[in-house]
C-alpha cells in the first residue's frame, strides 16, 4: 500500500497541545507527513502542565531525528545545558553526590570500569569515582562546552510551555492543521467501540482514523472513553503532590539539576536562562499543603515570580497505552515523578515507536500488543531506577524517610542491588534506559559498596593499573580546566546570529 489515497489510516487526530501533543505532531509530520493528514486540537482555556523541565541526553537524539537546530531551540526555549543531577541529603543529611551523564572510565568486554577502580581503591591508589567521568568533573567545576566532534554527553533544562510553542511555530507549516477549542464529546463506532470523531464545544466534528491522546492527566480518550485502566504504584513511590514556583535567576546557573531531599519528599531547582524553575514533590500522607508551601518558600534562592501552583498526581502507568485506535502519550499514559527527568523522554520514545509500528492498513491489534509490551517495560525500568533513590536512604529523621527506608521493593530491583553488593556487577539489559554509570553513581552515592569485584585489574599488574587510572584522571582534569564556565558558554552560544 503506497499511495496516499489507499491507506486505511490516513487521518491522524492529536487531542491536546502540551509537550506531548506538539512532540507527537512534530515527529509525525516530519517523518510520515507525506502519508498522513494531521490535525491537532488544543484548548487555550485548559492550558498545559509545564513547570520548567529537565531532560536527559536522548532528547538530542530525538532532535536530530526531527531536524531541530540546537542554537535556535536554546534561544527560543531559554534552555541551559545539563550534565547530570546533584542529589543532596538523600543518603544522609549533609551528604551529596552527582549522577552524571556520560560514562565513567573505560570498560572492556570482560567487565566494566568499576572493577578496576574498586581494586585500585582497595590498594589506596584511586581517586573518587567521579574523577574518572568527564561530565562529573565538568559539572562539579560549573564548566561546559560543545565542540565539533566532542563526546560530551549532555541534555537541557527548558521551559516546557515555550518548547510546545517553539515546536508549533516550526512544524505547523509542514502540514499540521491546528484547531483551537475544547473537546466536549468523543464519538465511537457503536459496534467496534473505535473512536470516530471528537466533537468540540462549538459543534465542530473532527473525524479521524487514528487518535493520539495527549490530553494530560485526564486521559480524555484513553481512560474516560476507552477505560484502559491504571496501575497505581504509590506503594513504591509514595509522593502524590507537587508545588511549583518560578524564581528570578539569582546568578547561579550550574550545568546540572539539583534534587534536594526535604522532610517528606524533595525539591528541584532547574536553572533556565531567564529564571529558575523550583518545586517541592511531597507525600500528602506525611505533609499537608501549607507546611509544604512553607518548606518550599523557605528554601528558595531568589525572589518568587509566581504563586506556588499545586499539582496532584497518582504515580503509575496506564495499563494499556494503545487501545483500539487510540494511543496515549505523555501524562495521559502515566506519570513517574520527575526525579530522573524521564517524562519527556517517554513521550519521545513513545512517538518514535508509534512511527515504527504505524497501523497504515488499519491493522491495530497486533501492533498495539507489541507497543504496549514495550511501553510497560520502559515504564517499569524507569520506575525501578527511581525507587532505588528512596529505598537506599539511610535517613531516619522523619516518618516519610523511615517509610522509604523500610518499604518492600520490586523483586527485580532487590535482585539488582544484591548482585551489585555481592559482585560489583550492574549488568543492565541492552534496551534499558539507565546504563551502568547511572546505577553505579546512585548506588555508591547512597552508600552501597560491593563486597567483591572482578579481578580484571590484576591482569594489568599494579603499575599499569595505577598509570592507566592516573592518566585518565589527569587528562579529564586538564580538558575541563580549558573549558569556559557554563554561563559564559551559554551567553556566547545563544547570542542571536
Ligand atoms: P499537558 O501539559 O497537561 O497538556 C494537555 C493538553 O491537552 C493541553 O494542551 C490541554 O489544553 C489539552 N486538553 C486537555 N483536555 C482538553 C479538552 N477537553 N479539549 C481540548 N484540549 C484539551 N518532565 C520531564 O521530562 N522533566 C521534568 O523535569 C518534569 N518535571 C515535572 C514536574 C511536575 C510536577 C510534573 C507534574 C510534570 C513534570 N514533567 C517533567 C512532565 C512534563 O511536564 C509532562 O510530561 C509534559 O509537559 C507533557 O505533558 P502533556 O502534554 O502530556 O500534558
From TrEMBL:
Pfam families: Trp_halogenase. Gene3D superfamilies: FAD/NAD(P)-binding domain (3.50.50.60). FAD binds at residues 17-20, 331, 344. PANTHER family: FAD-BINDING PROTEIN, FLAVIN-DEPENDENT TRYPTOPHAN HALOGENASE. The active site is at residue 82. Keywords: FAD, Flavoprotein, Nucleotide-binding. One of its GO terms (molecular function) is nucleotide binding. InterPro entries: FAD/NAD-bd_sf, Flavin-dep_Halogenase_NPB, Flavin_halogenase, Trp_halogen. 7-chloro-L-tryptophan binds at residue 82. L-tryptophan binds at residue 340. It comes from Marinihelvus fidelis. This is Tryptophan 7-halogenase.
Amino acid at each position: 500500500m503506497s499511495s496516499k489515497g489507499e491507506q486505511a489510516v490516513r487521518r491522524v487526530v492529536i487531542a491536546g497541545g502540551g509537550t506531548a501533543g506538539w512532540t507527537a505532531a512534530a515527529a509525525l509530520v516530519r517523518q510520515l507527513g507525506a502519508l498522513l493528514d494531521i490535525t491537532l486540537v488544543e484548548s487555550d482555556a485548559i492550558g498545559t502542565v509545564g513547570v520548567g523541565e529537565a531532560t536527559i541526553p536522548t532528547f538530542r537524539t530525538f532532535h536530530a531525528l526531527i531536524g531541530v537546530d540546537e542554537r535556535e531551540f536554546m534561544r527560543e526555549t531559554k534552555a541551559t545545558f545539563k550534565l547530570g543531577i546533584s542529589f543532596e541529603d538523600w543518603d544522609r543529611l549533609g551528604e551529596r553526590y552527582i549522577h552524571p551523564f556520560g560514562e565513567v572510565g573505560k570498560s572492556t568486554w570482560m567487565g566494566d570500569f568499576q572493577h578496576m577502580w574498586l581494586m585500585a581503591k582497595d590498594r589506596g591508589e584511586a581517586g573518587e569515582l567521579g574523577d574518572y567521568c568527564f561530565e562529573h568533573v565538568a559539572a562539579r567545576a560549573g564548566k561546559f562546552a560543545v565542540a565539533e566532534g566532542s563526546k560530551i554527553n549532555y541534555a537541557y533544562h527548558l521551559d516546557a510551555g515555550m518548547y510546545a510553542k517553539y515546536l508549533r511555530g516550526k512544524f505547523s507549516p509542514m502540514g499540521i492543521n491546528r484547531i483551537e477549542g475544547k473537546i466536549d464529546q468523543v464519538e465511537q463506532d457503536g459496534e467496534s467501540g473505535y473512536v470516530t470523531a471528537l466533537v468540540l464545544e462549538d459543534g465542530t466534528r473532527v473525524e479521524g482514523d487514528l487518535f493520539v491522546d495527549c490530553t494530560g492527566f485526564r486521559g480524555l480518550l484513553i481512560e474516560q472513553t476507552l477505560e484502559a485502566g491504571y496501575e497505581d504504584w504509590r506503594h513504591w513511590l509514595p509522593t502524590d503532590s507537587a508545588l511549583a514556583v518560578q524564581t528570578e535567576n539569582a546568578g547561579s546557573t550550574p550545568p546540572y539539576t539539583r534534587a534536594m531531599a526535604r522532610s517528606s519528599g524533595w525539591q528541584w531547582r532547574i536553572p533556565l536562562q531567564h529564571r529558575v524553575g523550583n518545586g517541592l514533590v511531597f507525600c500528602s500522607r506525611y505533609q499537608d499543603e501549607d507546611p509544604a508551601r512553607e518548606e518550599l518558600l523557605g528554601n528558595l534562592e531568589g525572589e518568587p515570580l509566581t504563586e506556588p501552583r499545586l499539582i496532584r498526581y497518582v504515580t503509575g502507568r496506564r495499563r494499556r497505552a494503545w487501545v483500539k485506535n487510540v494511543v496515549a502519550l505523555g501524562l495521559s499514559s502515566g506519570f513517574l515523578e520527575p526525579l530522573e527527568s524521564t517524562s519527556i523522554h517517554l513521550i519521545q520514545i513513545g512517538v518514535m515507536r508509534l512511527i515504527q509500528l504505524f497501523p497504515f492498513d488499519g491493522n491495530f491489534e497486533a501492533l498495539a500488543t507489541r507497543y504496549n509490551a514495550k511501553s510497560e517495560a520502559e515504564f517499569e525500568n524507569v520506575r525501578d531506577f527511581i525507587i532505588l533513590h528512596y529505598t537506599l536512604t539511610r535517613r531516619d529523621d522523619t516518618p516519610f524517610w523511615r517509610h522509604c527506608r523500610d518499604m518492600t521493593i520490586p523483586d527485580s530491583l532487590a535482585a539488582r542491588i544484591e548482585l551489585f553488593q555481592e559482585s560489583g556487577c550492574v549488568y543492565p539489559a541492552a534496551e534499558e534506559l539507565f546504563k551502568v554509570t547511572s546505577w553505579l553513581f546512585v548506588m555508591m552515592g547512597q552508600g552501597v559498596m560491593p563486597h567483591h569485584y572482578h579481578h580484571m585489574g590484576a591482569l594489568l599488574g599494579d603499575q599499569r593499573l595505577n598509570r592507566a587510572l592516573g592518566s585518565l584522571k589527569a587528562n579529564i582534569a586538564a580538558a575541563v580546566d580549558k573549558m569556559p564556565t557554563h554561563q559564559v558558554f551559554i551567553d556566547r552560544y545563544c547570542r542571536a546570529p
